[in-house]
Amino acid sequence: MDNNYPLKRRINGGSTLDTAKYTNQQIGLLHKLINNTPYIYYIVDKDWRFILSEGQGLKELGFEPGQLVGVTIKDLYGDDPEIMESIESVFRGETRITHTDAAGMHFETHFIPWFDEEGEVELLTCISTNITKRVQIQNEIIELNKTLESKVEERTEALSQSNEELLALNQELQAMNEEIQAINEQLHENNNQIISMQKQLVESEKMAALGNLVAGVAHEVNTPIGVSITAATHLSDLANTILAKKEKGEDIIEDLEYLLEDLSMATNIINKNLTRAGALVQSFKQLSVDQTTEDKRDFEVGAYIDEIILSLSPSYKKSGVLLEHKYQKEVVVNGWPGALAQIITNLMFNATQHAFGNDKGKITINTHDEGDFVRISFKDNGKGIDDEMLSKIFDPFYTTRRHQGGTGLGLSVVYSLVTQRYKGTIECRSELGKGTEFTIRIPKNNEE
């Protein structure tokens, strides 16, 4: 059989020489195209013999274009069962196979069968592509996917473990929240108890101040009443003496003259001392009412401070403290006099207990009219307060005399009454060795 028959049959397109020449030109261009592409083009007969082998891809197998013509596939691959099975499958009608050669190179081949007049496959036109790089990439992708799957499994397992840990932590947090809530409820209850205790202590502080006031007033009242009793007793003794002489018939003219002289003097003493005692009692009555009630009324600040000072005089006089006061002018405040009495009383006791020690000192109280406000200055020339203590003096229960019975509420009550009751301000300035000054500003007109 003519080996060129298939080609002639394919290119037989005309009967003139020019047509054949044109066709040969096309065939030349086709050869150039084939030999400059990376594919392998070959034709084998039914004996598996190469009758055409072209393409740059042959060089990857170690062959030049056309070098395999006349060589059979068996000569090239031997009895490789995979190759033989692939070729036979093509003759059975397969048009595409992939195979791997002995060197580990991978190829994908497409087949176009040529049939004879009887319909049998006479020739195979083959286009083979080296897919080694693609297979390598696919294998790398497969390995990468396996790695990714492994990592995904690891991450999934880690996430699952983390979720379990988070669930356990969440349960712990929930238990802690429940415990914290129980603690908060207990703290709330304890806080309410502390507030109640603070109120009781504040009331106790007020009662203690009132008790000191009572003791002071009792001491002050005792003197004029005692003098009055002495004068009255003297008059009574004179009267009894005169009555006894009269019953005996003795002369009582001289005694009556002496009685009249003493009577004038004694009644004057009794009147002055009882008047003083009455003033003290009235002052105590007003102060006690003010401190035990929350009534608001108009009062003149300076005069009211004088009443407070009068009631406290036994205690500060006993400690040897000198008291000076200066009021700018009459300043009327509409407010709670009992609160002011508590403020002045606590400041007085704080000064006498802490400022001077065993030394005698001086306390100065001044008032100043500042328009809508009145400023009260309470100053001592005692030993002063250091910076650390100064920052805590208004804190509840802070005291340096805990073991001497101090409650630490005196100045705290003062701060509360000034800032909350009167909506005013209080400042404390002090320097060691140079005394302490409290400056209080309260409005003249206070709303409920």
Quick one: biggest sheet?
Answer: 5 strands, antiparallel
Q: Any idea what the CATH superfamily of the largest domain is called?
A: Histidine kinase-like ATPase, C-terminal domain
* Mean pLDDT figure: 78
Low-pLDDT segments: 1-19
Q: Label the CATH architecture of the largest domain.
A: 2-Layer Sandwich
Number of domains: 3
Beta-strand level of the residues, as a percent range? Answer: 15-25%
Find the count of extended strands (DSSP E, 2+ residues): 12
Structural class: alpha+beta
Shape: rod-shaped
How would you sum up this structure, described in words?
There is one protein chain. The chain has 448 residues and is of the alpha+beta class. It has 3 domains: 126 residues, Beta-Lactamase (2-Layer Sandwich); 93 residues; 155 residues, Heat Shock Protein 90, CATH 3.30.565. The protein has 10 helices and 12 strands. The strands form 3 sheets. A 5-stranded antiparallel beta sheet has the order 2-1-5-4-3. A 5-stranded mixed beta sheet has the order 7-9-10-12-11, covered by helices on one side. Helix 5 runs antiparallel to helix 6. It is rod-shaped, with a radius of gyration of 62 Å. The protein starts with a helix and ends in a 5-residue tail after the last strand.
Task: Give descriptors for this structure.
448 residues; alpha+beta; Beta-Lactamase; Heat Shock Protein 90; 3 domains; five-stranded antiparallel sheet; five-stranded mixed sheet; 56% helix; disordered N terminus
